[in-house]
Amino acid sequence: MPQFPPSAGPSGRRVPRGRALVVLALLLPLAAGACGLLGAAGVERPSVSLDSTRLRSISLRDVDLLLGFEIDNPNALGIRLDGFDYRLSVAGTQLAEGDRREQLSIAAGGRSRADLPLSVAWDDLAAIYRSVRSGAETGYRLDAGFTFEVPVLGPVRVPLSRQGDFPVVRLPRLSVRSLDVRRVTAGGAELALALEIDNPNDFPFTLRELDYALELAGSRVLSTRDAREVSVARGGTERWELPVSVDFGQTGRAVAQALSSGGRIDYRLTGSADLTAPVEWLEDTRIPVDASGRVDLR
Protein backbone atom coordinates (compact mmCIF):
# COMPACT_ATOMS: atom_id res chain seq x y z
CA MET A 1 0.00 0.00 0.00
CA PRO A 2 1.54 3.38 -1.01
CA GLN A 3 2.53 5.82 1.72
CA PHE A 4 1.73 9.57 1.34
CA PRO A 5 4.14 11.99 2.99
CA PRO A 6 2.73 14.44 5.53
CA SER A 7 1.62 17.78 4.07
CA ALA A 8 3.49 21.01 4.70
CA GLY A 9 1.74 23.83 6.52
CA PRO A 10 2.06 27.58 5.86
CA SER A 11 5.21 27.78 8.01
CA GLY A 12 6.83 24.95 6.14
CA ARG A 13 6.37 22.51 8.99
CA ARG A 14 4.83 19.23 8.03
CA VAL A 15 1.20 18.69 8.97
CA PRO A 16 0.16 15.16 9.80
CA ARG A 17 -1.82 13.54 7.01
CA GLY A 18 -4.89 12.99 9.16
CA ARG A 19 -5.10 16.65 10.14
CA ALA A 20 -4.71 17.71 6.46
CA LEU A 21 -7.62 15.53 5.43
CA VAL A 22 -9.80 17.03 8.13
CA VAL A 23 -8.95 20.58 6.99
CA LEU A 24 -9.65 19.67 3.35
CA ALA A 25 -13.00 18.18 4.26
CA LEU A 26 -13.94 21.43 5.99
CA LEU A 27 -12.80 23.65 3.11
CA LEU A 28 -14.54 21.80 0.26
CA PRO A 29 -18.11 22.62 1.34
CA LEU A 30 -17.08 26.26 1.82
CA ALA A 31 -15.63 26.40 -1.70
CA ALA A 32 -18.72 24.79 -3.19
CA GLY A 33 -20.93 27.21 -1.30
CA ALA A 34 -18.92 30.16 -2.63
CA CYS A 35 -19.39 28.94 -6.21
CA GLY A 36 -23.09 28.49 -5.59
CA LEU A 37 -23.36 31.99 -4.22
CA LEU A 38 -21.58 33.35 -7.33
CA GLY A 39 -23.97 31.56 -9.67
CA ALA A 40 -27.02 32.57 -7.66
CA ALA A 41 -25.98 36.09 -6.71
CA GLY A 42 -29.18 37.56 -8.16
CA VAL A 43 -28.22 36.59 -11.72
CA GLU A 44 -31.10 34.96 -13.61
CA ARG A 45 -32.04 34.23 -17.16
CA PRO A 46 -34.13 36.94 -18.82
CA SER A 47 -37.65 36.10 -19.99
CA VAL A 48 -39.23 36.82 -23.39
CA SER A 49 -42.91 36.81 -24.34
CA LEU A 50 -44.80 37.47 -27.57
CA ASP A 51 -46.58 40.73 -26.80
CA SER A 52 -48.33 41.64 -30.07
CA THR A 53 -49.09 40.26 -33.53
CA ARG A 54 -50.30 42.38 -36.42
CA LEU A 55 -50.86 42.21 -40.15
CA ARG A 56 -49.65 45.71 -41.00
CA SER A 57 -50.58 45.77 -44.67
CA ILE A 58 -51.76 43.59 -47.53
CA SER A 59 -51.16 44.22 -51.20
CA LEU A 60 -51.49 42.04 -54.26
CA ARG A 61 -47.72 41.42 -54.04
CA ASP A 62 -46.71 41.35 -50.37
CA VAL A 63 -48.06 40.93 -46.87
CA ASP A 64 -46.27 42.82 -44.09
CA LEU A 65 -46.45 41.40 -40.58
CA LEU A 66 -45.15 42.79 -37.29
CA LEU A 67 -44.37 40.68 -34.22
CA GLY A 68 -43.64 42.46 -30.94
CA PHE A 69 -41.73 40.84 -28.06
CA GLU A 70 -41.45 41.98 -24.45
CA ILE A 71 -38.14 41.30 -22.69
CA ASP A 72 -37.92 41.25 -18.89
CA ASN A 73 -34.54 41.57 -17.14
CA PRO A 74 -34.91 40.45 -13.49
CA ASN A 75 -31.27 41.15 -12.63
CA ALA A 76 -29.62 43.96 -10.69
CA LEU A 77 -27.25 44.41 -13.65
CA GLY A 78 -27.96 45.40 -17.23
CA ILE A 79 -27.99 42.78 -20.00
CA ARG A 80 -27.73 42.91 -23.79
CA LEU A 81 -29.76 41.24 -26.51
CA ASP A 82 -27.43 40.23 -29.34
CA GLY A 83 -30.06 38.89 -31.74
CA PHE A 84 -32.65 36.20 -32.32
CA ASP A 85 -33.66 33.48 -34.77
CA TYR A 86 -37.24 32.69 -35.78
CA ARG A 87 -39.47 30.36 -37.77
CA LEU A 88 -43.14 31.12 -38.49
CA SER A 89 -45.56 28.53 -39.84
CA VAL A 90 -49.21 28.98 -40.82
CA ALA A 91 -51.58 26.01 -41.24
CA GLY A 92 -48.55 23.71 -40.92
CA THR A 93 -46.67 25.40 -43.80
CA GLN A 94 -43.49 27.37 -43.12
CA LEU A 95 -44.03 30.97 -44.09
CA ALA A 96 -40.86 32.71 -42.85
CA GLU A 97 -37.50 31.79 -41.29
CA GLY A 98 -34.34 33.73 -40.53
CA ASP A 99 -32.00 35.47 -38.09
CA ARG A 100 -32.08 39.05 -36.93
CA ARG A 101 -28.76 40.33 -35.64
CA GLU A 102 -29.23 43.48 -33.63
CA GLN A 103 -28.13 44.65 -30.20
CA LEU A 104 -30.48 46.01 -27.57
CA SER A 105 -29.52 47.00 -24.03
CA ILE A 106 -31.97 46.26 -21.22
CA ALA A 107 -31.42 48.15 -17.96
CA ALA A 108 -31.17 46.47 -14.58
CA GLY A 109 -34.62 45.34 -13.48
CA GLY A 110 -36.05 46.81 -16.68
CA ARG A 111 -38.21 45.83 -19.57
CA SER A 112 -37.85 46.51 -23.26
CA ARG A 113 -39.41 45.62 -26.61
CA ALA A 114 -38.01 44.04 -29.73
CA ASP A 115 -39.97 44.14 -32.99
CA LEU A 116 -39.71 41.68 -35.86
CA PRO A 117 -41.07 43.02 -39.17
CA LEU A 118 -41.67 40.32 -41.77
CA SER A 119 -42.62 40.56 -45.43
CA VAL A 120 -43.99 37.50 -47.23
CA ALA A 121 -45.31 37.04 -50.74
CA TRP A 122 -49.08 37.33 -51.07
CA ASP A 123 -49.08 34.34 -53.44
CA ASP A 124 -47.49 32.16 -50.72
CA LEU A 125 -50.11 33.17 -48.15
CA ALA A 126 -52.92 32.87 -50.69
CA ALA A 127 -51.81 29.29 -51.44
CA ILE A 128 -52.10 28.50 -47.72
CA TYR A 129 -55.55 30.08 -47.62
CA ARG A 130 -56.69 27.93 -50.53
CA SER A 131 -55.77 24.83 -48.52
CA VAL A 132 -58.04 25.96 -45.68
CA ARG A 133 -61.56 24.74 -46.38
CA SER A 134 -63.53 27.33 -44.46
CA GLY A 135 -63.59 29.47 -41.35
CA ALA A 136 -62.29 32.83 -40.22
CA GLU A 137 -59.02 31.51 -38.80
CA THR A 138 -56.38 28.84 -39.08
CA GLY A 139 -53.44 28.06 -36.80
CA TYR A 140 -49.94 29.51 -36.61
CA ARG A 141 -46.80 28.45 -34.76
CA LEU A 142 -43.82 30.61 -33.89
CA ASP A 143 -40.48 29.16 -32.73
CA ALA A 144 -37.76 31.62 -31.80
CA GLY A 145 -34.57 31.85 -29.79
CA PHE A 146 -33.15 35.04 -28.22
CA THR A 147 -29.42 35.31 -27.47
CA PHE A 148 -28.39 37.53 -24.54
CA GLU A 149 -25.08 38.51 -22.97
CA VAL A 150 -25.71 38.19 -19.22
CA PRO A 151 -23.15 39.11 -16.50
CA VAL A 152 -21.68 36.03 -14.75
CA LEU A 153 -23.69 33.64 -16.94
CA GLY A 154 -22.22 34.81 -20.27
CA PRO A 155 -24.12 34.05 -23.54
CA VAL A 156 -27.63 32.76 -22.81
CA ARG A 157 -30.21 31.59 -25.36
CA VAL A 158 -33.85 31.93 -24.31
CA PRO A 159 -36.24 29.85 -26.45
CA LEU A 160 -39.81 30.92 -27.20
CA SER A 161 -42.66 28.92 -28.74
CA ARG A 162 -46.14 30.24 -29.33
CA GLN A 163 -49.23 28.87 -31.06
CA GLY A 164 -52.42 30.72 -31.85
CA ASP A 165 -54.98 31.72 -34.44
CA PHE A 166 -54.11 33.33 -37.76
CA PRO A 167 -56.84 35.08 -39.79
CA VAL A 168 -57.91 33.79 -43.18
CA VAL A 169 -58.24 37.14 -44.96
CA ARG A 170 -60.01 37.65 -48.26
CA LEU A 171 -59.81 41.16 -49.64
CA PRO A 172 -63.14 43.02 -49.82
CA ARG A 173 -64.71 43.37 -53.26
CA LEU A 174 -65.43 46.97 -54.21
CA SER A 175 -67.43 48.45 -57.09
CA VAL A 176 -69.07 51.76 -57.97
CA ARG A 177 -72.82 51.15 -58.00
CA SER A 178 -73.94 54.63 -59.00
CA LEU A 179 -72.65 58.08 -59.82
CA ASP A 180 -75.19 60.84 -59.23
CA VAL A 181 -74.67 64.18 -60.96
CA ARG A 182 -75.90 66.68 -58.37
CA ARG A 183 -74.90 69.90 -60.15
CA VAL A 184 -73.07 70.91 -63.34
CA THR A 185 -71.73 74.41 -64.01
CA ALA A 186 -69.46 75.88 -66.65
CA GLY A 187 -66.47 75.35 -64.38
CA GLY A 188 -67.17 71.98 -62.80
CA ALA A 189 -69.59 69.49 -61.28
CA GLU A 190 -70.69 68.09 -57.92
CA LEU A 191 -71.16 64.31 -57.85
CA ALA A 192 -72.08 61.62 -55.33
CA LEU A 193 -70.33 58.28 -55.83
CA ALA A 194 -71.86 55.18 -54.19
CA LEU A 195 -69.11 52.66 -53.47
CA GLU A 196 -70.38 49.15 -52.72
CA ILE A 197 -68.26 47.04 -50.35
CA ASP A 198 -68.78 43.29 -50.27
CA ASN A 199 -67.31 41.30 -47.35
CA PRO A 200 -66.38 37.72 -48.41
CA ASN A 201 -64.92 36.90 -44.97
CA ASP A 202 -66.29 34.85 -42.06
CA PHE A 203 -65.87 37.83 -39.73
CA PRO A 204 -67.15 41.44 -39.72
CA PHE A 205 -64.78 44.32 -40.35
CA THR A 206 -64.62 48.10 -40.30
CA LEU A 207 -62.98 50.20 -43.01
CA ARG A 208 -61.69 53.70 -42.26
CA GLU A 209 -59.21 56.29 -43.49
CA LEU A 210 -59.88 55.76 -47.19
CA ASP A 211 -57.18 57.38 -49.33
CA TYR A 212 -58.31 57.29 -52.96
CA ALA A 213 -57.91 58.69 -56.44
CA LEU A 214 -60.76 58.73 -58.95
CA GLU A 215 -60.53 58.68 -62.73
CA LEU A 216 -63.50 59.40 -65.00
CA ALA A 217 -63.34 58.93 -68.76
CA GLY A 218 -59.59 58.31 -68.41
CA SER A 219 -58.86 61.61 -66.58
CA ARG A 220 -57.91 62.06 -62.93
CA VAL A 221 -60.65 64.11 -61.27
CA LEU A 222 -59.51 64.07 -57.64
CA SER A 223 -57.20 62.55 -55.03
CA THR A 224 -58.26 62.86 -51.41
CA ARG A 225 -58.94 61.16 -48.06
CA ASP A 226 -62.22 60.27 -46.39
CA ALA A 227 -61.75 59.84 -42.62
CA ARG A 228 -65.18 58.31 -42.02
CA GLU A 229 -65.71 54.61 -41.38
CA VAL A 230 -68.09 51.92 -42.54
CA SER A 231 -68.75 48.55 -40.87
CA VAL A 232 -69.62 45.48 -42.92
CA ALA A 233 -71.13 42.34 -41.38
CA ARG A 234 -69.77 38.87 -42.02
CA GLY A 235 -70.69 38.00 -45.60
CA GLY A 236 -72.55 41.31 -45.88
CA THR A 237 -72.61 44.33 -48.18
CA GLU A 238 -72.59 48.04 -47.38
CA ARG A 239 -72.41 51.28 -49.36
CA TRP A 240 -70.06 54.17 -48.77
CA GLU A 241 -71.12 57.44 -50.40
CA LEU A 242 -68.21 59.63 -51.44
CA PRO A 243 -68.64 63.29 -52.42
CA VAL A 244 -66.78 64.21 -55.63
CA SER A 245 -65.99 67.75 -56.78
CA VAL A 246 -64.82 68.00 -60.41
CA ASP A 247 -62.89 70.97 -61.77
CA PHE A 248 -63.24 71.03 -65.56
CA GLY A 249 -60.19 73.26 -65.77
CA GLN A 250 -58.12 70.34 -64.43
CA THR A 251 -59.87 67.41 -66.10
CA GLY A 252 -60.42 68.71 -69.62
CA ARG A 253 -63.37 68.73 -71.99
CA ALA A 254 -63.88 64.95 -72.21
CA VAL A 255 -65.10 64.70 -68.64
CA ALA A 256 -67.23 67.84 -68.97
CA GLN A 257 -68.93 66.49 -72.09
CA ALA A 258 -69.51 63.06 -70.54
CA LEU A 259 -71.10 64.50 -67.41
CA SER A 260 -73.24 66.94 -69.41
CA SER A 261 -74.54 64.38 -71.89
CA GLY A 262 -75.33 61.61 -69.41
CA GLY A 263 -75.29 57.92 -70.27
CA ARG A 264 -72.45 55.72 -69.03
CA ILE A 265 -68.91 56.67 -68.07
CA ASP A 266 -65.70 54.73 -67.43
CA TYR A 267 -64.30 54.95 -63.92
CA ARG A 268 -61.36 53.73 -61.90
CA LEU A 269 -60.99 54.09 -58.13
CA THR A 270 -57.61 53.28 -56.57
CA GLY A 271 -56.11 53.77 -53.13
CA SER A 272 -55.98 52.10 -49.71
CA ALA A 273 -57.88 51.90 -46.43
CA ASP A 274 -57.44 50.63 -42.86
CA LEU A 275 -59.26 47.40 -42.00
CA THR A 276 -59.96 46.36 -38.40
CA ALA A 277 -61.69 43.14 -37.38
CA PRO A 278 -62.40 41.38 -34.04
CA VAL A 279 -59.79 38.68 -34.69
CA GLU A 280 -56.13 38.40 -33.73
CA TRP A 281 -53.65 40.13 -36.07
CA LEU A 282 -56.20 42.45 -37.74
CA GLU A 283 -55.96 45.96 -36.33
CA ASP A 284 -55.60 48.90 -38.73
CA THR A 285 -54.35 46.60 -41.47
CA ARG A 286 -53.75 48.63 -44.62
CA ILE A 287 -55.44 47.02 -47.63
CA PRO A 288 -55.53 48.03 -51.31
CA VAL A 289 -58.56 49.59 -52.98
CA ASP A 290 -58.96 49.04 -56.72
CA ALA A 291 -62.26 49.16 -58.56
CA SER A 292 -62.92 49.89 -62.23
CA GLY A 293 -65.67 49.58 -64.84
CA ARG A 294 -68.55 51.56 -66.36
CA VAL A 295 -71.34 53.20 -64.41
CA ASP A 296 -74.58 54.96 -65.29
CA LEU A 297 -74.75 58.69 -64.69
CA ARG A 298 -77.93 59.69 -62.88
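(ticket continues) Second input and output from the same batch:
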Amino acid sequence: MIVRSAVPAAQRVVRHAVARWLEAARWPEDDVEDITPAVTEAVTNVIEHAYLDHDPGSIHLYAWITPATRPATPDGLSASPATGGAPKEGRKVIVVVSDHGRWHPERRTVDLNGHRGRGIAMMTALMAAVHVQRASNGTTVVMVSPVSLG
Protein backbone atom coordinates (compact mmCIF):
# COMPACT_ATOMS: atom_id res chain seq x y z
CA MET A 1 0.00 0.00 0.00
CA ILE A 2 1.11 3.53 -0.76
CA VAL A 3 -0.31 6.53 1.08
CA ARG A 4 0.67 9.99 -0.15
CA SER A 5 -0.56 13.50 0.33
CA ALA A 6 -2.74 14.60 -2.59
CA VAL A 7 -0.25 17.06 -4.04
CA PRO A 8 1.15 17.15 -7.60
CA ALA A 9 4.49 15.61 -6.56
CA ALA A 10 2.60 12.42 -5.66
CA GLN A 11 2.00 11.70 -9.36
CA ARG A 12 5.67 11.11 -10.07
CA VAL A 13 6.30 9.19 -6.84
CA VAL A 14 3.37 6.84 -7.41
CA ARG A 15 4.11 6.37 -11.12
CA HIS A 16 7.72 5.36 -10.40
CA ALA A 17 6.76 3.12 -7.46
CA VAL A 18 4.19 1.25 -9.55
CA ALA A 19 6.60 0.89 -12.49
CA ARG A 20 9.38 -0.45 -10.22
CA TRP A 21 6.95 -2.89 -8.57
CA LEU A 22 5.74 -4.21 -11.94
CA GLU A 23 9.30 -4.51 -13.25
CA ALA A 24 10.30 -6.46 -10.12
CA ALA A 25 7.36 -8.78 -10.82
CA ARG A 26 8.73 -9.23 -14.37
CA TRP A 27 5.64 -7.66 -15.89
CA PRO A 28 5.97 -7.16 -19.68
CA GLU A 29 7.30 -3.68 -20.48
CA ASP A 30 4.50 -2.86 -22.93
CA ASP A 31 1.92 -3.63 -20.25
CA VAL A 32 3.79 -1.54 -17.66
CA GLU A 33 3.53 1.33 -20.13
CA ASP A 34 -0.27 0.94 -20.10
CA ILE A 35 -0.80 0.36 -16.39
CA THR A 36 1.34 3.22 -15.07
CA PRO A 37 -0.44 6.03 -16.98
CA ALA A 38 -3.83 4.62 -15.93
CA VAL A 39 -2.74 4.66 -12.28
CA THR A 40 -1.21 8.13 -12.68
CA GLU A 41 -4.50 9.39 -14.11
CA ALA A 42 -6.46 8.04 -11.13
CA VAL A 43 -3.98 9.73 -8.77
CA THR A 44 -4.25 12.97 -10.75
CA ASN A 45 -8.03 12.89 -10.36
CA VAL A 46 -7.63 12.70 -6.58
CA ILE A 47 -5.21 15.63 -6.60
CA GLU A 48 -7.40 17.80 -8.83
CA HIS A 49 -10.89 16.93 -7.63
CA ALA A 50 -11.13 15.24 -4.23
CA TYR A 51 -10.07 17.91 -1.77
CA LEU A 52 -11.31 21.19 -3.21
CA ASP A 53 -12.88 22.37 0.06
CA HIS A 54 -9.84 21.93 2.32
CA ASP A 55 -6.16 21.14 2.52
CA PRO A 56 -5.03 18.14 0.50
CA GLY A 57 -6.00 14.86 2.07
CA SER A 58 -4.45 11.55 1.22
CA ILE A 59 -4.28 9.22 -1.73
CA HIS A 60 -4.42 5.51 -0.91
CA LEU A 61 -3.14 3.04 -3.47
CA TYR A 62 -3.35 -0.73 -3.13
CA ALA A 63 -2.13 -3.07 -5.85
CA TRP A 64 -1.69 -6.78 -6.25
CA ILE A 65 -1.12 -9.42 -8.87
CA THR A 66 -3.55 -12.28 -9.17
CA PRO A 67 -3.62 -15.36 -11.37
CA ALA A 68 -6.02 -15.14 -14.27
CA THR A 69 -8.34 -18.10 -14.02
CA ARG A 70 -9.70 -19.96 -16.98
CA PRO A 71 -13.43 -19.51 -17.47
CA ALA A 72 -15.53 -22.55 -16.70
CA THR A 73 -17.23 -24.43 -19.51
CA PRO A 74 -20.87 -25.55 -19.22
CA ASP A 75 -19.67 -28.91 -17.90
CA GLY A 76 -17.79 -27.16 -15.06
CA LEU A 77 -14.30 -27.79 -16.43
CA SER A 78 -11.81 -25.05 -17.19
CA ALA A 79 -11.81 -23.87 -20.78
CA SER A 80 -8.64 -24.46 -22.72
CA PRO A 81 -6.84 -21.61 -24.53
CA ALA A 82 -8.16 -23.06 -27.82
CA THR A 83 -11.74 -22.40 -26.66
CA GLY A 84 -11.06 -18.86 -25.48
CA GLY A 85 -9.87 -19.61 -21.96
CA ALA A 86 -6.98 -17.70 -20.47
CA PRO A 87 -3.70 -19.61 -20.30
CA LYS A 88 -2.99 -21.11 -16.89
CA GLU A 89 0.11 -18.93 -16.41
CA GLY A 90 -1.74 -15.66 -17.10
CA ARG A 91 -1.79 -12.91 -14.47
CA LYS A 92 -3.67 -9.67 -13.88
CA VAL A 93 -2.84 -6.56 -11.90
CA ILE A 94 -5.57 -5.07 -9.74
CA VAL A 95 -5.07 -1.48 -8.58
CA VAL A 96 -7.30 0.43 -6.17
CA VAL A 97 -6.90 4.20 -5.79
CA SER A 98 -9.04 5.87 -3.14
CA ASP A 99 -9.49 9.15 -1.33
CA HIS A 100 -11.64 10.58 1.45
CA GLY A 101 -12.64 13.74 -0.37
CA ARG A 102 -15.71 14.81 -2.28
CA TRP A 103 -16.12 15.10 -6.02
CA HIS A 104 -18.81 17.39 -7.35
CA PRO A 105 -19.57 17.49 -11.09
CA GLU A 106 -20.52 21.16 -10.93
CA ARG A 107 -17.04 22.02 -9.60
CA ARG A 108 -14.97 19.96 -11.95
CA THR A 109 -12.20 21.67 -13.84
CA VAL A 110 -13.39 23.24 -17.08
CA ASP A 111 -11.12 23.38 -20.10
CA LEU A 112 -12.50 25.35 -23.01
CA ASN A 113 -9.72 24.02 -25.29
CA GLY A 114 -10.77 20.41 -24.81
CA HIS A 115 -7.46 19.22 -23.33
CA ARG A 116 -8.95 17.94 -20.07
CA GLY A 117 -11.74 15.68 -18.95
CA ARG A 118 -10.49 12.49 -20.57
CA GLY A 119 -9.06 10.74 -17.51
CA ILE A 120 -11.64 8.03 -17.01
CA ALA A 121 -11.80 7.37 -20.76
CA MET A 122 -8.02 7.00 -20.80
CA MET A 123 -8.06 4.60 -17.83
CA THR A 124 -10.78 2.56 -19.54
CA ALA A 125 -8.80 2.40 -22.79
CA LEU A 126 -5.63 1.21 -21.02
CA MET A 127 -7.14 -1.30 -18.58
CA ALA A 128 -9.43 -4.31 -19.04
CA ALA A 129 -11.90 -2.99 -16.46
CA VAL A 130 -12.38 0.25 -14.51
CA HIS A 131 -14.98 0.81 -11.81
CA VAL A 132 -15.50 4.19 -10.10
CA GLN A 133 -17.45 4.28 -6.84
CA ARG A 134 -18.31 7.73 -5.46
CA ALA A 135 -19.66 8.01 -1.92
CA SER A 136 -20.03 10.69 0.73
CA ASN A 137 -16.80 9.50 2.36
CA GLY A 138 -14.67 9.47 -0.79
CA THR A 139 -14.12 7.95 -4.19
CA THR A 140 -12.59 4.58 -5.04
CA VAL A 141 -11.32 3.58 -8.47
CA VAL A 142 -10.68 -0.11 -9.13
CA MET A 143 -8.70 -0.98 -12.25
CA VAL A 144 -7.96 -4.44 -13.62
CA SER A 145 -5.24 -4.92 -16.21
CA PRO A 146 -5.57 -7.13 -19.25
CA VAL A 147 -4.24 -10.64 -18.70
CA SER A 148 -0.49 -10.86 -19.07
CA LEU A 149 1.16 -14.06 -20.20
CA GLY A 150 4.57 -12.90 -18.99
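Agent notes: The CA atoms of residues 100 and 137 lie 5 Å apart. Residues 2-144 form a domain with the Heat Shock Protein 90 fold (CATH 3.30.565.10). Closing as not reproducible unless the customer responds.
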